[in-house]
Design brief:
- Helices cover 47% and strands 19% of the residues.
- With 72 residues, it is of the alpha+beta class.
């Protein structure tokens, strides 16, 4: 694995609109920088996603991106 700051920057670059951080316990999180509508929330969009590692977080963000493209 790489340095946290480099991984964070890479993920945020690949997924604009998401802010990434890691908890003290080492779990990875990403939160949208904008708001979601009630309809988006009901359709399965997430304001925040969490994973055990950076790879898992990337997978969750890709899933959210797919929802974005289906919704447009």
């Amino acid at each position: 694995m790489g340095d946290f700051d480099e991984l964070k920057a890479a993920i945020e670059s690949d997924h604009p609109g998401w802010l990434v951080w890691r908890s003290d316990a080492g779990r990875w999180y990403a939160t949208r920088s904008g708001d979601l509508t009630d309809a988006q929330l009901q359709a399965g969009y997430a304001m925040t996603v969490a994973a055990d590692d950076s790879e898992g977080l990337r997978e969750l963000l890709v899933e959210q991106t797919r929802k974005d493209h289906k919704g447009n």
